[in-house]
Amino acid sequence: MADFKPMSERLVVFARYPVPGQAKTRLIPALGADGAACLYQQLAEQTVRQCRLLQAGYPVALQIQYAGGDEDKMRAWLGPELDYRAQKETGHLGDRMHHAFQTAFQEGVSAVVVIGTDCPELDAPLLEQAFNALQQQDLVLGPAVDGGYYLIGLRQDVPQLFQDIAWSTSQVLAQTINRARQLGLAIALLPQLRDMDTPADLAFWQPVTNLTRKTG
Q: Is the CATH number of domain 9-206 3.40.50.2000?
């Protein structure tokens, strides 16, 4: 197993091993189980490419926190040299994200950004912008068109940001910002981008035209 030296800043990517029927389930009616998993695989690989581009010019540790599959499968898919950890197995998305932040800060990291793999427009310059924002702000958020967020970054553990939030709804971003303001946190907002979650989003993802619906 690789020995990863601690760095002062960490980028955490939440990823899922692309098993048909378990990845991008809301897109299965439009693409079929295999097509939805294929799209998810493309999105995840695009995200990791941008993370590697960030690392080429910015000193940040990259960590993949995965669900589904196992570490060997993740290494075979996304590369053997990356740092892999299984996501927290219990709780909602907020619990899993908070665990990622809490663990990083306990390990001495000074700034952490957590992203998913659903936003094809999220690129290396935007990721660097997020880390730069954390040099002066307490919290950075990347607003998503659907009312959630595609990125969250912190420079200290703030568990309240992940408690009593209506996850997977259009209220996530607004509730998180309101909570941050109640806590007196300085907030930076990135440009609004679109996640690929529903059939209506597919028109914004060019390679999807290569995916064929699976009917059998």
A: no
